[in-house]
Amino acid sequence: MARITCAALTKKYGDVVAVDALDLEIAHGEFMVLLGPSGCGKTTTLNMIAGLEEISAGRLSFDDAEVTWTPPHRREVAMVFQSYALYPNKTVRENIASPLPLRRQPAAAIDSAVAAAAAQLEITHLLDRRPNELSGGQRQRVALGRAIVRNPAVFLMDGPLSNLDATLRLSMRGLIKRLHQDLKSTFVYVTHDQAEAMTLADRIAVMRGGLIQQLDTPEGIYERPANLFVAGFLGSPPINLIEGVMAGGAFSRGGWRLALPNPPADGRSVTLGLRPEDVMVAAPGLARLDARVELVSPLGSETHLDVVAEGGLKLTLRVPKEWRAAVGDQIGFGIDPARLHLFDRASELRL
Ligand SMILES: Nc1ncnc2c1ncn2[C@@H]1O[C@H](COP(=O)(O)OP(=O)(O)O)[C@@H](O)[C@H]1O
Ligand SMILES: [Mg+2]
């Protein structure tokens, strides 16, 4: 296992700062997910940890040893790519074994390591095939097998499930999570898929523009987003963001007023965040929101409602499937003020 410490880790491509003085400590055996939109610096960060990309400034350490300038093959890391990167002319068995001969192990040890990895990934029956005779999911299992046999201290995965269809992604997600539980190695996993990040991570680093926006557990990121960007990036459908101003201790927008538990000072311009699922049947003790239903999207397990509230405010809400709402219905929703998120409009930071 290895603890990974990034200290002011920086990557510049000419004038482009791809990763901007990133500080991040990843614990022994932790499953860390780097999450963010395309171009935010996830791959560059991973490649610097792998040694595939030269570090422009800052330090990288594994446990207490600095590895900033250590070549990749001496870092005890294994990388799994979105594109699988298998040898097309080698069999599955040879692909999985490919990192091993360099280490001069006896043939029997290699055979048993390959067999164990293949069994763990349930691809024993595929060992004599070549990559072009495999599905995408099977190819990614082979790539995982090739990583496992090296018994690395650190697994680095760059969008390993991005090329798979939705159903396969779900089952492969489970496989990767089990693998982490079995191997107890440190995992650093890059994705732009929030559901993948939420389900896999011990902690998530949400990135934007080469900077970490928030580092926290999945629950922490979802329940207490540090700023508007993080709030908007996680959640499906996305959080409703409502601009207003503080007046008389209440959030105020047009004629709609909402008393808040710890209100910021009057006059402050704020953005209120309402998760689509944080509405309920109107009841005493709850704030009330009256809205007209514009669109009903039943998903089976739940229903999404697009509604228009007072002042033309458009919201998307998630309600239990038992709610029988129809287009044109006027519904009074209940909102628990304690479940709302409040952000300063200028700084975009959570209040
Ligand atoms: N080889 C390169 N040359 C110049 N710019 C690059 C290079 N690789 C990445 N970048 C830039 O660095 C930024 C981060 O890229 P990347 O780490 O690939 O993002 P992500 O993996 O989050 O999509 C982007 O602005 C990208 O255009
Ligand atoms: Mg990338």
Structural class by SSE content? alpha+beta
Report the portion of residues in β strands: 35-45%
SSE pattern: EEEHEEEHHHEHEHEEHHEEEEEEEEEE
Q: Supply the CATH superfamily name of the largest domain.
A: P-loop containing nucleotide triphosphate hydrolases
Question: How many strand elements?
Answer: 20
Number of helices: 8
CATH domain fold name of the largest domain:
Rossmann fold
Distance between the termini: 38 Å
Largest sheet: 6 strands, mixed
What average pLDDT do the residues reach? 94
CATH architecture term of the largest domain:
3-Layer(aba) Sandwich
Strand order of the largest sheet: 6-7-8-3-9-10
CATH class of the largest domain: Alpha Beta
Give the number of domains.
Answer: 2
Question: Which residues form runs of ≥5 with pLDDT under 50?
Answer: none
Q: Layout of SSEs?
A:
Blueprint: E1 4-13, E2 16-26, E3 31-35, H1 42-50, E4 57-62, E5 65-66, E6 77-81, H2 92-97, H3 107-120, H4 136-148, E7 154-158, H5 166-183, E8 186-191, H6 194-200, E9 203-208, E10 211-216, H7 218-223, H8 228-233, E11 240-247, E12 250-253, E13 256-259, E14 269-274, E15 280-281, E16 287-298, E17 302-309, E18 313-320, E19 330-335, E20 341-344
Parallel strand pairs: 3-8, 3-9, 6-7, 7-8
Antiparallel strand pairs: 1-2, 1-4, 4-5, 9-10, 11-12, 11-14, 12-13, 14-20, 15-19, 16-17, 16-19, 17-18
Helix pairs in contact: 3-4
